[in-house]
Amino acid sequence: MNLNSQTFSSSRKPKNFNNPEHFIEGWYWIIPSRNLRVGQVKPVTILGRELVIYRGKDKRVATFDAYCPHMGAHLAEGKVEGNALRCFFHHWKFDAEGMCIDIPCLDTPLSLKLQTWPTAEKYGMIWVWTGEIPQQPLPFVPELEQEECDVAIHSHFLMNCHPSVVMINAIDAQHFNTVHELPIEIIFDGQELNENAIIFSNITPIKDNPFFIKLIRLFYKKAITYSVCYWYGSIVIVTLGPDFFHVHMMFAVRLHEGGKAEGQILLLTKKRKGFFGWLSNRVVLWLTKIAGKFFLMGDIKIVQTIKFDFKTPLKVDQPIMQFINHVEKQQSLMWGTWQEARSRDVESKPKRERWQDKMSND
């Protein structure tokens, strides 16, 4: 395979990958769920757009554009009334769907609607879909798709590089040997889960030598478990561990001002019943945190100083090239406006039907 013939080229500005003006239409984290109480309203700015979020009496979260359509007062200055939000300035009131339901000086409110954004909660975070209609589910760990999970929100970070550059670190096979000094070879097989998700799995057979490899063979039947699932080119879920015990880490990253990467690290495990299940999960999440620190060591100083320029891809970089091409095919939006950065094929437009899911804020 001639990797230099791939669609990505450092001499041509990519549509999505490492482009500080574009991001993929998809689900992005806003804030941790625990940071928004019932009856609370907050201003947030993500992907260059000012928003307001609040949690109504029914515990569901609603997300609007930030400014009142009357005179432009910031709606975060207002207050939550039941499941609706009332503007502080002239007391216009909007329900969770953005419809104006009360203007104090009028007997009948005007027929107008705020720009609202699909919002849901999962893995302890509040997420917003950056388009009109969600096309895919909330990001999930493939291995735990049907499972309830215990989650620990590990840390928040800001990197001096684009989210795309942060993402490829998880499938950069060379750096496992050079930076982390792992005495094993990693060969990835990439398979698209859907238009917005792709999974890379390690398929390297375990050899008998040296001693370290012989030791780990006690815990693995075939290849060492190391899989990476990407969503929207900006969320990566890493799964690793022996056959009987897997840990999961989610790096949820979004484009920040100046082409930087802002993210949250989530640690996840399958929920186990009872006190001992709860206790064992605390141990699992603690071990996951240790694993996360190991992978972050050395990588942080690279992504804080790198000036990404992929001039000479090698055969070992094939997974990175596959990821770049996967990202380039997705629908991109403009920073700040959230308008489409390129048109979809005419044939695909009528197919934009709402993805069916519970879409719950539980």
UniProtKB/TrEMBL annotation:
It comes from the Bacteria. Residues 27-128 form the Rieske domain. CDD domains: Rieske_RO_Alpha_N. Keywords: 2Fe-2S, Iron, Iron-sulfur, Metal-binding, Oxidoreductase. Residues 343-362 are annotated as: Disordered. One of its GO terms (molecular function) is oxidoreductase activity, acting on paired donors, with incorporation or reduction of molecular oxygen. The keyword Zinc does not apply. PANTHER family: 3-KETOSTEROID-9-ALPHA-MONOOXYGENASE, OXYGENASE COMPONENT, IRON-SULFUR DOMAIN CONTAINING PROTEIN. This is Rieske [2Fe-2S] domain-containing protein.
